[in-house]
Design a protein that fits this description.
By secondary structure, the chain is of the alpha+beta class. Helix content is 36%, strand content 27%. The protein is built from 6 helices and 6 strands, in the order βααββαββαβαα. A hairpin with a 2-residue loop joins strand 2 and strand 3. Helix 2 (34-54) packs antiparallel against helix 3 (76-95). The longest helix has 21 residues, at 34-54. The protein is globular and about 55 Å long.
Length: 176
Amino acid sequence: MTDLNSIKSPVELNLLVSFFDLANFIKISNSRKNLELFDLLSEFYEFAGNIIENAGGKIIKFIGDAGLAVFPEENVDNGIHALLKLQKETEIFFQKKNVQTRLIVKTHFGCAAYGQLGPAGNKRPDVLGETVNTAATLNSKNFAISPQAFRKLSPQTRKLFAKYTPPITYIISNKN
């Protein structure tokens, strides 16, 4: 079992990398005072962190209304189920606070560098590499996983997803 908390020196790991982001956050932030918004996000960060970490994952960072989380390779199924739970329960969490939003989730699986980054005396876990970039750029307004992440899932968990194939686009060839 990979213990992400014990890793201090950078290593390459196969990880499930996920970005999650609250939709319509501009409207939420524009309709609240700064300290009220701070308290709201503080509660959400704890809420999200509990779901991710209870499933064996690690919150890497929050940036405003968005977060980056990772799960070790042996926890891919748990990770997907936790992210689905986070998405569903985030809606309920914010409905109770009269806030209209939903959670957008983008997830990819692959090799990434994992370790501690930051200024001396304040290093924190971080993850870097093409896998992270791919997760960040998945096209989604709901919950999307890459084919690489899908292939790591158990047959039972795969049944939760349907294949989406975007329309074909033709480009000019350089053969002429």
